[in-house]
Amino acid sequence: MAKGRNQRLRFKRRRNAETDYHRRSRMLRGGSPRAVVRVSNTQVTCQLVAYELDGDRVLESVTGKSLVDSHKWPTDASRKSVPACYLAGYAMAKSALSNGHSEAILDIGLAASSSGNRTYAALRGMIEAGLKIPHSEDVLPSDDRINGEHIGESISKAVTATKKSIGGGK
Question: Is 0.85 surpassed by the pTM of this model?
Answer without folding.
Answer: yes
